[in-house]
Amino acid sequence: MKKYNTPLIDQLEKGPWPSFVTEMKKAGKNNEMSNDAVGHLEKCYTTKMGYWKHGGIVGVLGYGGGIIGRYSELGEEFPGVAHFHTVRLNQPSGFFYTSKALREICDIWDKYGSGLTNMHGSTGDIVLLGTKTDALETIFAEYSSRGWDLGGSGSDLRTPSCCVGPGRCEWSNYDTLDLVYNLTQEFQDELHRPMFSYKFKIKAAGCACDCVASIARSDFSIIGTWKGDILIDQKEVQNYAKKGMNIMSEIVSMCPTQCMSYDGKELKIDNAECSRCMHCISKMTKALKPSGERGATICMGSKAPIVVGSLLSWVIIPFIKLEPPYTELKELLRKIWDWWDDNGKPRERIGEVIEVKGMRSFLEAIGVPPLPQQIKEPRKDPFMFYTEGDIAAYKAKEAEEKKTGKYRF
Amino acid sequence: METAELQDKIFAFCEAAKGKKKLKEKDIIKGVSAEQNVPPDDVKKAMRAMIDVGRLMYSYGGGASSVEIPSEEYLREKGLIK
Amino acid sequence: MALPQRRTDIGPPHYRQFMPPVIDKNYGKWKYHEVLTPGTMVHVAESGDKLWTVRVASPRILSTATIREICDVAEKFCGGHLRFTTRNNVEFLVSDEKNLEPIKKDLAARGFKMGGIGYGITNVVHTQGWVHCHSAATDASGIVKSMMDELFEYFESKRLPNKLRLAVACCVNMCGAVHCSDIAIVAVHTKVPVVDDEKFKNMCELPTVIGSCPTRAISPDPAKKSVKINPDKCMYCGNCFTVCPPISIKNPERDGVAIVVGGKINSLRSNPKFSKLVIPYISNEPPRWPKVVAAVKHIVEVYASHARKHERLGEWIERIGWERFFALTGIEFTFQSIDDFTFMRDTMRTASTFKW
Question: Would you call A134 and B71 a contact, using CB atoms and an 8 Å cutoff?
């Protein structure tokens, strides 16, 4: 095997933080592809540019997602990375593994790929970095026969992902792990066969802490919340105070809705005014917990800056109950995709299409009424559409008022 | 329309677009459905069957996925031709 | 050897089979948790059962050799059970308290770094960079490594007013959640791309390329059967390159990074926020990007010494005002921080109430 001199990236093996260069070299010890990836990276560091090419006709028969084609422009100099495709394996909900499962993944990957991975990629998949075109069908047969399927890529439903949820968190308002597993199974076709205008990401967070960054990184953000009161264990509140927490400055005055008060003995919450931000609960988890009806807020549209600026997801449905078999949610997703399909241009994310076509058109199509919870503030310009139906409804209301002698605004 | 005949129409539709326009699944389903007066779901089913055996294939380029007629290279890699 | 029979559309394995018995038993019935050290926490169930978590850093790029070593540790102390976090850390799930100190000792002896829980800096969300991406304008992994070496104490021991989330994106496609991080580094191009007219003819669709430009800088060039790019309008986003590789935008001497700050994704106290541009350009300086690292460390330190307890970086800045942030950090305010893309009307100040 060729030995590369790598003075630049060697400098990234020093220091306390674990080194990715060390990982690449470890993989390169017995693997020609990774060995060449090391030399290839040194070249990038020398010239200050990348050499990867993207795309093409790589995939497994029948699927359009899950494999990402990658080739080097320097294939002659570094033959081991001439083809260096990515395989995305669909991760288990919550990234839970047994060592047995991980060893199985590693054994197959060592046999047919570079021995390099990302645990995990940005969307959540197990990312297997670097293999050749002629190994793809074999890799897929090996993994799928053992229960591992490919994740999404291209213009399809991307692999849904979620926070740790009820697996190890006291704050989850619904079963994020089960929901994501269930949706992934339901929408296997959408995940493996690109049928959309562009990518579509679903992320499920159990509460407003949003450990999976759903509000910023998914077209369809599912954020757990509740409708009841926050239950208070006053004894535990006192314990926090005794241990040095300043309840007034750290909790009460940091509450965004100012719905809390504390007299040194008793903590009170005006629950009707609470906006469920999770600050107090996350700081005093032993003393405070939500109660009552549980479910989630559905927000939509977030994405990175390309093309016309980044978006955070918008509130679409303030509250939805999430219990198996999640029929309402699945029907909602299908309605959303139908509308997107009819209205989206190629490479338009759903948030961008909603902006172009107007929120009203979208909400009407999916059967959601206008609600003040959806907005930060009402429009500030006087340019608006009135349908004939709108005006007829307003006129009818006025006629009714004339009859009853009572205004309804 | 018989599936085999519909598949030939789908193939012809893709062939006509070759080198001109990258077709998405949706373009084929809508296009062939309108052209042949066949329900979209039938077109989708027929097209999927073609993809499953390598008569058509998914491709990716220009930041989006598309459906194309496979190259010889692809068919050879999949062991569909010698 | 014959290949096993492939199966399609089976989806991921069910998560429940990978969970340790204590989770299986207390699933959805957790009562509270306590952070014991920056590298360990304990979750307590309503039943009284406890689960200890030991978190270690990962460079995200892992060799199978290292994954097997992680498996060795999990088998020795956790019945083989572990998980990864959404920010790429490894978490060992310890069901028996008597294994807690031994696993920590074992991990330390193997050189694993424990930390990342609570009010400090945890692992960095980042993209592939030169290691594996076609559109990278820098190497994300190299910047992360250099930065975390310098900020390591905030991972392992030293605390901050609140957690501080770092991210690195190797181009403006931002495959990581860079746009909502406390401090994020985003690689930028700074020069108008060059069109290879010959290749354009064969590889690109004209309307798609023209439509890809957010600033309408691209127009047809019929004589060459190609396109031309208006340098007065181009903002170097690289979207045209994505749809048409013969439009080349990479430029080793001009590509660099920008720094954005003040974003967050949770709703605690204040709503999720985008990160905002404070440093428009620093040259790519592999292998260790010293100026980028110094800038990030400086911002962290100014935040650490000025913010109130529980204030995230962005919340602190909103309280004191951006003009004060620039004064306290000594960062030069430039034209690039004033939006001239699509958000100017939302980001200009419309009152005379500011600080000197």
Answer: no
Q: A145-182: string of b/e by CB count within 10 Å (b at 16+)?
A: eeebbbbbbbbbbbbbbbbbbbbbbbbbbbbbbbbbbb
Same domain, yes or no: C342 and C290:
yes
Give yes or no: residues C209 and C221 share one domain.
yes
Please indicate whether, in this complex, the C-beta atoms of A20 and C43 are within 8 angstroms of each other. no
Beta bridge partners of A118: A127, C61
Count Cβ atoms below 10 Å from residue C25 Cβ, excluding itself.
12
CATH 1.10.10.10 is right for the domain spanning B3-77: yes
Upstream peptide bond of A325 is cis (omega within 30 degrees of 0):
yes
Please name the amino acid found at residue C96. D
Q: Count of A–C CB contacts within 8 Å?
A: 357
Q: Which of B59, B65, B78 has the highest number of chain A CBs within 10 A, making it the mutation to test binding with A?
A: B65
**Residue C1's pLDDT is what?**
63
| C313 in B contact zone (CB under 8 Å) | no
Helix A32-47 vs helix A20-28: angle between axes, to the nearest 10 degrees?
140
Who among B25, B73, B78 is closest to A61 (CB)?
B78
Span C149-194, pLDDT tens digits = 999 999 999 999 999 999 999 999 888 768 999 999 999 999 999 9
How many separate domains does chain C show? Answer: 3
Domains and CATH numbers, chain A: 7-145 (3.30.70.2500), 161-226+296-374 (3.30.413.10), 230-290 (3.30.70.20)
Please give the angle made by the CA atoms of C36, C41 and C45, to the nearest 5 degrees.
120
pLDDT digits (tens, 9 = 90+) for C254-287: 999 999 999 999 999 999 999 999 999 999 999 9
Q: State the complex-level ipTM.
A: 0.97
At residue A392, the 3 state secondary structure works out as: helix
